[in-house]
Design brief:
The chain has 352 residues and is α/β, with parallel strands linked by helices. 52% of the residues lie in helices and 13% in strands. Bound molecules: zinc ion.
Length: 352
């Protein structure tokens, strides 16, 4: 008997391009959401974009509320939830880099309200995905969140964000290569459900980014265009899979461990990029495919070594040998690595 069923939750309006911030209210009006908006933003993002969105809503007669968050925390999520209730908000808009968007989408999830993503930087694939992540104590929790109903990505604003955020976004996409390999491995060894469609889309997204690496240069607005489109397509792959599997494998577990061992040392995307070099080596060994990942990262100016991440050798070895302790998903690291093997892979790939 055929008894499969699936939900694919995709953004309805994806608006990308030069100056599109001014189309935010139109993109939202088209969703027929009721009530007043609540904007979640950070001090910098508010200046870059948040205030303009508030003014546009006010001009249309809506009465937007604003919560400014300084850091990603469960307390901040709680504050947004309380404000939304107190102000009787109808839907949430996250305006910013990673943090305000993560917080807004987690708050939307518990409020059961619509959420719109207005990224001011292209630093990771969370700008379009239905997963949120906040640090708590010495770990980082990835939790269910509301996928955006609309994404408004103004390439003029994103191109002006700090360059390292862009290279981090690129590295997060390049890491899809190894995420898909881990997913296929889990399918073969653990019968984890695998979607050919989502896997192919995710891998193709990484390939397109690598193929277009020449057009990704500091100061070029076209770079923001290429990277945002890739982040959107990576998010779509996750929606199709109804899982973060297409974009998150052992390289992400490696990065989660680094968050614990060396908190705040490097950006998420940069950590998973280096993680991808290591886990691609573990998947394909001497055939040298790990070099393609390393060269792509190096070409973009993203870190490829522990030094460039600002962490020491010991942190790399510890992250590799403890990644299996995160029992979140089956990956190439799930059976554990001993220290000698971890040192070998990190040395051969030039990470340490
Ligand atoms: Zn990621």
């Amino acid at each position: 008997m055929f008894d499969k069923s699936t939900w694919i939750r995709l953004p309805r309006n994806v608006v990308v391009g030069h100056g599109v911030l001014s189309q935010t209210t139109d993109a939202i009006a088209e969703l027929h959401l009721g009530g007043h908006p609540l904007l979640v933003t950070s001090p910098t993002a508010r200046e870059m974009a948040g205030d303009r969105v508030v003014e546009a809503f006010a001009a249309d007669g809506a009465e937007p509320s604003v919560v400014v968050v300084e850091e990603a925390s469960f307390a901040a999520v709680e504050r947004v939830i309380e404000t939304a209730r107190a102000e009787d908000s109808g839907f949430l808009i996250g305006v910013g880099g990673g943090k305000p968007i993560d917080i807004a989408k987690m708050a939307s999830h518990s409020l059961e309200m619509g959420f719109v993503s207005v990224p001011t930087a292209a630093s990771h694939d969370g700008i379009v995905s239905g997963r949120g992540s906040v640090p708590e104590g010495d770990t980082r929790h990835s939790v269910a969140a509301e996928p955006p109903l609309a994404v408004v990505a103004d390439t003029e604003i994103i191109a002006n964000a700090p360059w390292e955020l862009m290279t981090a976004g690129c590295a997060d996409i390049i890491s899809n290569y190894t995420a898909v390999r881990d997913w296929q491995l889990a399918h073969r060894l653990q019968n984890v459900e695998y979607s050919e469609y989502a896997g192919a889309l995710s891998r193709m997204t990484a390939e397109m980014l690598v193929d277009n690496a020449d057009s990704i240069k500091k100061g070029l607005e076209e770079s923001a265009w290429v990277v945002v489109k890739a982040l959107v397509s990576s998010g779509v792959a996750m929606s199709i899979a109804d899982s973060s599997r297409p974009a998150s494998g052992a390289e992400h577990l490696f990065s989660h461990q680094l968050d614990r061992i060396a908190p705040g040392a490097a950006l998420h995307g940069h950590q998973v990029g280096v993680g991808s070099i290591l886990t691609e080596y573990l998947h394909s060994g001497a055939d040298g495919r790990w070099k393609n990942i390393r060269d792509a990262l190096a070409g973009l100016g993203a870190p490829t070594t522990a030094d460039e991440l600002g962490i020491d050798e010991g942190a790399v070895i510890e992250a590799l040998t403890t990644a299996h302790e995160i029992r979140d998903r089956y990956t190439i690291l799930s059976n554990g690595m001993n220290e000698a093997a971890a040192r070998e892979v990190a040395t051969v790939t030039g990470v340490i």
